[in-house]
């Protein structure tokens, strides 16, 4: 490799942006974590990208039906959250594409742009999943309040909440160039873990509680819908908690100046189940068993 290429590669590995190092840039090139990132990028292209396109296509078809039929049901909160998280995922795919391109072209600014987009997706996923957990919490724990939020006032609150997710995610990306970025990540991850655990465990406690006609608590008499809801909430709780705990681990390693590339690479792969939760549940609600095929 020429001296010029070596110098460019070194600047990409160790470049500081406003005196703040980017661990992601080093780990994206250093082995063996680089293989983990590129494998994750390929998985995003082959799995997440088609899934997002399919969901947006379904959403567009529903929107057309609602325009042509005034009596059609309005969009549910969960579907709305799913559409937004799909758009956020597409931004992440674009970010990884730019990062991968920058590694081969040794273009620092391109890498920085991709890094910011990928970071935006990282924060957006967390915040949007918090909204879904809060939505389920209200639906199960406070059903009367939840029903009142299905009015126009509730839709406005939902839209404002989604807008806050986008603003907070952009704000966190803006903090990447500050010295408090890692500390803010710890605060964000800890807060997310507490909120997700509280909401999910509260819902699970209600689901396992025997109903009015089942005071004996016989598990065999629990309805199939409650069993399905229990499994879904449990899966979401495990996936989100594991992601938060693992990312907290590598953030603490980064603060302590330890070598965190391998841990960070594993953490990126733990983002994959989080990326799949809402889209897969959306397809399940829509009755889609395969790409473009609807179950009868």
From TrEMBL:
Supply the alphabetized keyword list.
Membrane, Transmembrane, Transmembrane helix
* Keyword Membrane (UniProt): yes
Membrane-traversing stretches = 38-60, 81-106, 126-148, 160-180, 186-208, 229-250, 262-283
Q: What's the name of the protein?
A: Uncharacterized protein LOC127363544 isoform X2
